[in-house]
């Protein structure tokens, strides 16, 4: 699948919040207890998204027809989930990979993950990390299918998250 990554602009912040809400509603329909807070996001979550936009860490994903079909946040450091390990060099962290529900099940998530991994390898990044709600076993297995290894756990006020790492080097 051919996709294009574009850094999100500040004016697209409402689009990001809409993506989160749509994903939350889709998860709710599937009876997956994750991201309910995006239906009426608390201040700390909105602040987290705004920070990502200010740091130019959010990307939107487009198909070749110009449709905005997914988004993600890519960080160079992540102490919120990874604490001191989150400051290591040659590591990248992906958060908030959201595929619009209307494009779900079409391989978009896989295409996004493979393209991110390919780009990180080209940049000589050694490790790729992410977190995943531990109660979402299907999503945990999805990331494990890429070779991500569970290396820890992080408890937040919203969930228990598995910490995953993929060696790229």
TrEMBL record:
Species of the source: Lutimonas vermicola
Bilayer-crossing regions: none
Domain N-acetyltransferase, chain residue ranges per copy: 3-169
Matches recorded under InterPro entries: Acyl_CoA_acyltransferase, GNAT_dom, YpeA/RimI_acetyltransf
Pfam families membership: Acetyltransf_1
Keyword terms of this UniProt record: Acyltransferase, Transferase
UniProt cross-references to PROSITE patterns, sorted A to Z: GNAT
The protein, known as: GNAT family N-acetyltransferase
Lineage: superkingdom: Bacteria
């Amino acid at each position: 699948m051919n996709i294009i990554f574009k850094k999100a602009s500040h004016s697209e912040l409402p689009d990001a919040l809409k993506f989160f809400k749509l994903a939350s509603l889709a998860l709710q329909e599937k009876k997956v207890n994750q991201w309910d807070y995006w239906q009426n996001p608390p201040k700390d979550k909105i602040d987290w998204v705004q920070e990502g936009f200010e740091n130019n860490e959010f990307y939107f994903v487009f198909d070749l027809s110009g449709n905005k079909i997914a988004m993600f946040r890519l960080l160079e450091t992540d102490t919120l989930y990874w604490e001191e390990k989150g400051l290591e060099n040659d590591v990248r962290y992906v958060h908030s990979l959201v595929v619009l529900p209307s494009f779900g099940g079409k391989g978009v998530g896989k295409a996004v993950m493979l393209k991110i991994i390919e780009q990180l390898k080209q940049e000589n990044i050694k490790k790729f990390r992410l977190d995943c709600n531990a109660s979402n076993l299907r999503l945990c297995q999805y990331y494990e299918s890429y070779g991500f290894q569970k290396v820890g756990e992080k408890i937040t006020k919203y969930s228990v998250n598995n910490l995953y790492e993929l060696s790229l080097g």
